[in-house]
Amino acid sequence: MSDSPRVPNVVTIPAGAPFLRTLVDGLLDGALIPGFAPRGDPLALADATIFLPTRRASRALRDAFLEALDGRATLLPRIAPLGDVDADMEAADPLDDADADLPPAVAPLERRLTLAKLVSRFAETLDRSALALGDDDGPLIPATAAEAIHLAGDLEALIDAIETEEVDIAALDRLAPGEHDQYWAITQSFLQVALRLWPEHLDEIRRLDPSRRRRLQIDAAIARVQAGGGPVVAAGSTGSAPATRRLIAAIANAPQGAVALPGLDRDGLDDASWATLIEGDEPALAGHPQRGLSHLLRALGLARAEVRELAPAPRPLAARGKLVADALRPADTTDLWSRAPLAPAESAAALGEVAIVATAHPRGEATAAALALREALETPRKTAALVTPDRGLAARVAVELERWGVAIDDSAGQPLGAARAGALLRLAADAALDPTPANLLALLRAPACRLAAEAGLPERAIDALDLVAFRTPLAKPGFAALRAALDARARGPAARFGGADRAQAARLLDALEAALAPLASLAASGPTPLVQLATGLRAVYDAVAGAPEGDDAEELGRFLDELADAAASADPISPRSFPGVVEALMAGRTVRPRRDRHPRLRILGPLEARLISVDRIVLGGLNDGVWPPAPQSDAWINRPLRAELGLAQPERRIGLSAHDFCQLLGAREAVLTRAAKAGGAPTIPSRWLQRLAAVAPADYAAAEARGARYAALGERLDDAGRAPPTRPPEPRPALELRPTRLSVTAVETWLRDPYSIYARHVLRLEELGPVGPAPGPAELGDVVHAALEAFLSSGVAMDDIAARENLLRLGREAFGDLAERDEVRLMWLPRFERIADWTLAFERGRNAQVTTRHAERTGAFAFPTVAGREFTLNVRADRIDLLADGSAVLIDYKTGRAATARQALAGFAPQLPLEGAILREGGFEGIAPKAGALGGMMLLRLTGRDPAGEIIDIRHKTEPLEAVADEALKRFRQVVDRFENPDEPYRSLSHPQFLSRPEGPYAHLARVKEWSATGGAAEGDGGEA
Hints:
By secondary structure, the protein is of the alpha/beta class. It has seven domains: 10-102 and 212-262, Rossmann fold; 108-204; 336-413 and 597-636 and 647-717, Rossmann fold, CATH 3.40.50.300; 416-591; 730-767 and 985-1025, no CATH class; 774-848; 850-979, no CATH class. The chain is 45% helix and 11% strand. The protein is built from 37 helices and 22 strands. α1 (19-29) packs across α2 (55-68), α4 packs across α22 (551-566) and α15 crosses α20. The longest helix is centred in the N-terminal third of the chain and has 24 residues, at 182-205. Mean pLDDT is 89; it is low at 84-94 and 1017-1021.
């Protein structure tokens, strides 16, 4: 019997071999653990334990056992997810029977809120001015509770790193603040307190930090392995954490233990480069794919040659592995690229089934990736997966696959905050604590909101509340102002809702107020316990969600339960900051819908894809900064300090990503995709692609040529051919649909843009105003008209000493409750005061000429058309003044942009001339100038600026105003008769001089910017709309 020490039992499975199936076959056949070959014994496997990096890999291993055993009844081994350093905490937790005597881990939300409390209290002790910090300096002083929670997340990551990498926190005391920047003095003083108080707090509540509990679990598992027992295997781990390395070492040295490493480079990298990986301390070396494995072998006391290969990879894939190893060698030895590791034929075969796709933009990349996945389904039983860290690309690919009716499983799921239930919760919190019209409407329109249905109200009740109340300027926020808006006289689109609609809207408003009350009642409070806010939010959510169903609703319910349990750990917060707190706490939580997905396609993140084998792999997002990711800065400790403390450098994650990339390239077919631009800016190809191109330029170019096929197919997929130039719309509605009544104020629109008349009076489309508007020029115009009408009707003489005060009082009354708003009080009321002074001065100067002033008088003129129909022209004149000589003066108020006298005389702004014609035709009851004489037409432009008013006198140099008015009516009747012809189209912007200003509520419907940019079309060459 030999006394030589036992060599640790360590094997490797190359990237080109299916890892889990190779592991299972090796275990069953005795190749993995000599003397243990349980393929024929259905009970022997039950004594074995297998540690894997993640839960997903654990589930896949079970499937691999079932496949290898071909359905035979067998007791499977115990399979435990071990958790690498960058695996998520949930995936790393259950080493089930290793924690019997351990206290439970502190709940995630309780941990986050407690640490946020520490951060906030520390921030309160800092004197920003004494520290010479500006308002934007540094993240260490949170301005809101939500910022404190985000910063607490960074603190959690630091605690995890310290625990996982087993760093002695006493080293913090040895770092001299004077050697570093001022932020370190702040950070050090806080961390010295926080890292002492946090464990003490956990001891008080008899809980463990999750990262410490995981380490203690691994230590317990090590003790069990060393105590002896059944066969034990650690597979797929690179030993990133010290505790994991100790467990791997214990397993490798156990009598029936074995370690299976993923993709160890046994001979592709030369010995000098391998030694550099082990001994070198340059940060760039941490980004090498073999760095972690080289350090693990050093810890195990093994050389590469002592690690046996469990099964070989197929020759082309083995060649690919050598080519990739050469491409990613350390920078110091890239001079060896000149010594090609492969013969030309081998190199060509290595990349023979690799396609490299470079598209112009992210959508093209998604389409190409989706095509590669869809193509795989044409081969029976063929499997494929997209692996990418780019969540945007993953979402776009899933959408692209839907065009073929393919639903794909996305391992990352959907962020809870973006799911229907999560979005409803956020909207409910916003609406309750800040009940602006926009927030209330967003809540009511949310797909998951069931408030109207639960109240037995139709969708039209939401429409009525929206158009009648939410789009009206309110005197103040709140439900009382909204109720007042429902009772007020409506105009525009809101006028379409009658009394019954308004009553239903009022019922909905009552239900909404009652639903939001549990949380809204706290809005005006000072700092409030989070427990109260969480309880109120739960009540609000239950009221607006009804009886929600679905995976997202279940996950949200768990979140709210956890929030209620953990809320006592938080300091009281301002209710206004609560929505931000909820959003911060929901960040990172996902929903994984339990829906049918295609069994042969998957979308995976790099972590989830570890050890998973498919026939075709699509690696997406291969741009530098995406894959590999850019090194992340730490909010608490910078790079030099991490090195001094013994924490891993950020580049280590790049090394892990590089190892993932190499492993994933072991699939028989590989499609690598990237977009040349993202966000409108050029991108840089992943450094891995750049190195492959440098090592094998000809074979890389051939792979690009193969990938160009997917890019070209993607472009053709949605190519509808060259679109003909867009033509201006020329709708020709039937005669009975054409208007027979029009306001004189709409005639200018008809002459300039007939399409707008078609949209408004034939299609009956009206522009919707903004939600929750502030008072603006339109409201000022209403006030000016109402105040001047009331003033002129009051009988107060213009030169009366009380005239000014009377007019100002009427203006304030016209503003009504809006006068309480700051913008009205500070801007619009002073403007009206200047308008009042200017108007009184204007009127006093005319007292001797004017005998009677008529304000806001309605009139009409009806006439037969060429088609035998009657057309009525309506008018509401702002002012008609009768002069001492018997003539009449027509006045129109304009508080915004006003037409010029030239435009009015040329017929493009015929409002006042047409009013004069209607007056001459007797269209204003009780107002008859002597012999139809017109003494003047003028626009009063009343803006309240400097000057406050302006007179635009409309007067022809040679023609009397009577002739101007008669000519305007004649032209208008000609226009009416022309449009009485069903073949006459309602063209958009029929006069070329108006194309330079394609604004207006219907310009987008007419696609003005599209066809005017290409020169439009000749008259008669337009299209229907």
